[in-house]
Amino acid sequence: MPHSSSSASAPRTLILGGARSGKSAFAEELAARAGGPVRYLATAVPDPADLDFAERIAKHRSRRPGSWSTVESADPATVLTEPMLPSNPRGSTLIDDIGTWLTARIDAREAWDAPRGTISSDTDALVAAIAAYPYHLVIVTPEVGMGVIPATRSGRLFRDEIGSLNQRLAQVCDEAYFVVAGIPLRLK
Prior knowledge:
Layout: E1 12-17, H1 23-33, E2 38-42, H2 51-63, E3 69-72, H3 76-79, E4 92-96, H4 98-108, H5 120-132, E5 136-142, H6 153-172, E6 175-180, E7 183-186
Parallel strand pairs: 1-5, 1-6, 2-3, 2-4, 4-5
Antiparallel strand pairs: 6-7
């Protein structure tokens, strides 16, 4: 399938991988290597009661250079429609990650028990914003469909929604990598 990138736009790079695969660290390296300022869109919505997840967020925060700007609990579809830095369009935006964004959208729409497609307007807006974004963009997303079929409906819903969304994102991105055991494999 064709993708909507053009040689006039900065590259959009999709980074896929499993849990603890090294996908975020690789994405951070790509954003830093591009030069210029980096805007980091952290999509997680922290739950103060979830200490394990808070520890993961803290680890991600500690790796980021102090010069990077961070937008916490970000909705990328909204943020990407705003210019990064009009005075310096050379910078990068890094989204980490699409899985936590998708979970937040399903939560916000109370769609865990709703029919599939309930969040289509959200995923459509995200894909459109990414396709139209004219600056360097690095997107981190989980690859979850390579193993066990989830035992719960919510697990199957997430797996199916992220799988479909990842396919759509890969179509509009110029590059895609799959990170396994800390090793990035170029897909396109």
